[in-house]
Design a protein that fits this description.
Layout (H helix, E strand, L loop, with lengths): L1 H20 L2 E6 L6 H9 L4 E8 L3 H8 L7 E6 L2 H8 L4 E4 L15 H18 L4 E4 L4 H14 L8 E3 L2 H15 L10 E3 L6 E3 L10 H12 L1 H9 L7 H18 L5 E8 L10 E9 L2 E5 L7 H27 L2
Parallel strand pairs: 1-2, 1-4, 2-3, 4-5, 5-6
Antiparallel strand pairs: 7-8, 9-10, 10-11
Bound molecules: nicotinamide-adenine-dinucleotide and (2S)-2-hydroxybutanedioic acid.
The site of nicotinamide-adenine-dinucleotide has 33 residues, from β2 and α5.
């Protein structure tokens, strides 16, 4: 009797501490947009989330009211276009996802979005510094290679920069790389998890097929690499002026947020490629780089180096590093000139 009561008590405590650890508030800034809506939906479906805060300059109240009817436990609140509202949205958030900003139209590069999105992301970073200085910040807004350094510079200027808590979301590249190889090889995409390193635009996206035991050659390899690097363009073209990837991006953003929540809630060995403040190429003046990163309760736990790669992958990496350096410098310069 004593033994069973003890076991019951232990189970109760375990259940309690598990649910206590699952009390995570997640904020989505730009939550009424093409990505923001399905991303908010997926966060509402995630049992690790206890509170979902949706902020946008327009439409957040409607999205929150709609999603709020879904019969999962989390509380959903919409916040709209006001400093105080943004502050309330951010307060207590463990994860802040940022898909705010304009998407591409056909013929544009991600860098063409810089002029509009740089100031949107800068201003949101200032609000985060004020209201959620300890949050994990997940930047989706393009161009990621520049918007992540912008957030870092703002946080530095406020004296609260924690490089372990800032992430550029590059998960969509991993998702595409895995899907595209499964189409090529007729494998189950669920079994594929291709590492993608570098950054998030064109030639800065470097898939490392060899690390998953694949050895495509010649045109097959070139076509594959091109498709991963320019997968975003396929969607922009197909949407024909109506924007870029939103649904697959929402899935990718939700996957990354889920990985962070798992790691924060005690799961070990959670690894995702992501664009972070990284030591790997700092000696070449490149402060941010996406590689496999182990996540933990403090955010970045361990940054893995690139590992063994083929000469062809090294060629791709060399091109990537050159582009990346300029993209990062552009973000840093923007904050210096427009603090
Ligand atoms: P969208 O135009 O559909 O939605 C953007 C939302 O941001 C809108 O609802 C808009 O009102 C809101 N917004 C604008 N300024 C804001 C501000 N200051 N504060 C809060 N909200 C604000 O665009 P989308 O298709 O959702 O794309 C959003 C961004 O994500 C784009 O920059 C796009 O390039 C990028 N993106 C990144 C990836 C990636 O892999 N990292 C993938 C797809 C798209
Ligand atoms: C993507 O990779 O789909 C996004 O970065 C959006 C874009 O502009 O292509």
């Amino acid at each position: 009797m004593m033994a069973s009561r003890h076991i019951f008590g232990t189970l109760q405590r375990r259940a309690f501490s598990a649910s206590a650890r699952q009390a995570s508030k997640v904020a989505v800034l730009g939550g009424a947009g093409g990505i923001g809506q399905p991303l908010s939906l997926l966060m509402k479906l995630n049992p690790r989330v206890s509170e979902l805060a949706v902020y946008d300059i327009k439409g957040a109240a409607g999205v929150a009211a709609d999603i709020g009817h879904i019969n999962t436990k989390s509380v959903v609140t919409g916040y709209q276009n006001d400093e105080k509202e943004l502050d309330a949205c951010l307060k207590g958030s463990e994860i802040v996802l940022i898909p705010a900003g304009v998407p591409r139209k056909p013929g544009m590069t991600r860098d063409d979005l810089f002029n509009t999105n740089a100031s949107i992301v800068r201003d949101l970073a200032k609000a985060i510094a004020e209201s959620a200085p300890d949050a994990n910040i997940l930047v989706i807004s393009n161009p990621v290679n520049s918007t992540v350094p912008i957030v870092a510079e703002i946080l530095k200027s406020k004296g609260i920069y924690n490089p372990k808590r800032l992430f550029g979301v590059t998960t969509l590249d991993v998702v595409r790389a895995s899907r595209f190889i499964s189409q090529h090889k007729s494998t189950d995409p669920a079994d594929e998890n291709i590492t993608v390193i570098g950054g998030h635009s064109g030639a800065t996206i470097v898939p490392l097929l060899s690390q998953s035991g694949y050895s495509l050659e010649g045109k097959d390899l070139d076509d594959y690499v091109y498709r991963v690097q320019f997968g975003g363009d396929e969607v922009v073209k197909a949407k024909d002026g109506a924007g870029s990837a939103t649904l697959s991006m929402a899935m990718a953003g939700a996957r990354f947020a889920e990985s962070l929540l798992k790691a924060a809630q005690g799961q070990k060995g959670v690894v995702e490629p992501t664009f972070v403040d990284s030591p790997l190429y700092k000696d070449q003046g490149i402060d941010f780089f996406a590689s496999r990163v182990e996540l933990g309760p403090s955010g970045v736990e361990k940054i893995h180096d690139v590992g063994k790669i083929t000469p062809k992958e090294q060629e791709l990496l060399d091109v990537c590093l050159k582009d990346l350096k300029g993209n990062i410098a552009k973000g840093v310069k923007f904050v210096k000139e427009n603090p």
